[in-house]
Amino acid sequence: MTNQEVAIPVIRAEFSSFQSIRVEVEGNPSIHWSLECDGQSLAIQQVETHREEQLVIYELTVLEPVELECRYEVFGAGRSIRVVPDRLVRTEAFERKYRYEGKLGVWEEKGTFHFAVWSPVAERIMCVVYDQDERLLGKYEMERHEQGAYHLQLEQDIAECWYRYEVTTYLGTQEVVDPYASAISENGRYGVIVDVERTMTKWFLKRVARPLFVKPSDAVIYEANIRDFTIDHSAGSSYPGQYTGMTERGTRSPRGHATGLDYLLDLGITHLQLLPVHFFETTDERTRSPYNWGYDPMLWFGLAGSYASSVEPLVRVREYAEMVERLHEAGIRVTFDVVMNHVFIRERSSLEQLVPGYYFRYEVDGTLSNGTGVGNDTASERFMMRRLIVDCLTYFARVYRIDAFRFDLMGIHDIETMNDVRAALDAIDPTILVYGEGWDLATALPERLKAMSASAAQMPRIAHFNDVFRDALKGSTFSEFDRGFVAGDGWKEGEVRNGIAGSVHIDNQTYGRFPEPTYSINYVEAHDNHTLYDKLKLSCPEADEQQLLRMSRLAQTIALFAQGIPFLHAGQEFLRTKQGVENSYNAPDEINRMDWERRDDHLSLVTYIRTILQIRRMHGGFRLHRANQIRELLHFIDLRPGVIAYELGAVHSYDAWQRTLIVYNTTREIVEVSLDHSRWNVHVQGDEASVDPLLKGVDRIQVLPLSTTIATC
């Protein structure tokens, strides 16, 4: 070896296709290259060179396509370097060659446990089995099949033992938790050898039917965090912060009012959306601390143990399943919060360790895409990532009988994936809802492919959180001092009208954001950002508590009566506060808890919201599910600035009320409206709402400041 050869730095060598290798070298050398596969020489058919800035690029062409389970090395200038498939795994050729549609995970057939995991770049995979004290029981070499899947069958009695995969790739050898593990040990350290689907049939000999549900516009979604809902002493729960606490009956606040499930039943919701229950990283399941919402996923099929009564693997499975069953018995459907747009730490994720570089999205320059803002975006456009998403959701719909799926940062995903999700869930139950955050995020995906609200028409029967309507009502979420329509910003009146009409095009004064009203999730508050009360308090520092209550009541009423799908965040109906904390994802219980005593302080507002939901449920005019119905039946009436009035007319086909007049007054003055005859009845006025008339036979109505009046005939 010459001194010149020793000094030549070879930067990297990688496959640019299945028959070509790209070698990057600094300087201006002339090098003769040779190639070996698992120590055997391979002929190089052709060598081409070109310069890229300070680098010399060698493109080596080989005669036969490479096999990624082999170890390839190039030799030149007296040294060798491993050839890696970093970019190759993100090519269409890789997708075609290694597209795998067989079963994955662990399952049992006739007493035999089957294991299957996908890793085309693995040189070797061992299944490592441990007992429940983490003592090694055995290592078993898995057999490589076509499309890069590794399989194993074990007939010995290993039920409920723990396992991991020892995977050898070009990055080295490491133990990996099965990404398809449906049962996991504490803190997600091991998968558990159990067929959860078969086990569920033993636990529940007869499953409770899904609660009756006809169409999306019938839904009332209520978002809650399992821990928040019962952790405070005021909840009166025997299972604070646990799955079991969500369905405990007979709980009461210190003043004797219903809490927990009894409260939800009284409120009148149809769907309970729970913040993430898949395994998340930052809460230690043994100590249940520190607090975290759970938007830091590492495994998706396994459940969070911090909400279970014990960290034992099957306890969380059973208690979560029992919670869903009890909610179904009570007539409430369950929404699963899907956080599959990123992982907490990419380098430690099973996906990255099994197939480095495949499951995540990259910019053209080779850097990681970061539209999520947490350092990585999953690449749903790739077949096996798309398949993972579809497999996970259909698993929860089939095994746990989940009724709806809410996608966190849905705009990170691609349209085709979302449509595949919709089709797969339709095959299980077409009444399952799919909705999400269709934000336009800066991810490395062409705009035309993003599953964002602007592309809603390309995703039939998938709903989107209507952030435009939200901000028009209460002010910009991202500017805490910006005021919304209910706080007197008349410039936002047009967007509020759009939202009331389901954000579909009905006339020249409305903008058709969505093709159908059921594509719109109407809300004023969710788990993230300021609560409605805190936002109003920040943007309206001059307002007293009574004015804040009225503005909150008005904003909620507008959103709940708007065409589309209404959504409430737990506690907004009693002015929930997080003490001004905008993003409470890791704040303590004192900030995030459901304060049931505050609910008791605002019983009149809770009663009002409950009645609004009851009126909506009883009268189909508020639940029109087609844009053409809204165009035909909903008509706005111009009264004065700061006041929105509209009539639902000739709705007798859908409603016992033939005509309904709704007036929202954001001014500080009483507004009087003359009616066309004296047979009108008033059901909502000021701080009162009733399914029976508050006033009968009127020909004139008063709309109090910062309030709603609804009259019918």
Automatic annotation (TrEMBL):
Pfam families hit by this protein: CBM_48, pulA_all-beta
Alphabetical list of SMART domains matching this protein: Aamy
GO BP term, pick one: carbohydrate metabolic process
NCBIfam families named in the record: pulA_typeI
GO molecular function: hydrolase activity, hydrolyzing O-glycosyl compounds
Parts of the chain that traverse the membrane: none
Protein name: Pullulanase
Family named by the database record: Belongs to the glycosyl hydrolase 13 family.
Domain Glycosyl hydrolase family 13 catalytic positions: 244-616
InterPro entries from the UniProt entry: GH, GH13_cat_dom, Glyco_hydro_13_N, Glyco_hydro_b, Ig-like_fold, Ig_E-set, pulA_all-beta, PulA_typeI
Protein species of origin: Exiguobacterium indicum
CDD domains registered for this protein in UniProt: AmyAc_Pullulanase_LD-like (cd11341), E_set_Pullulanase (cd02860)
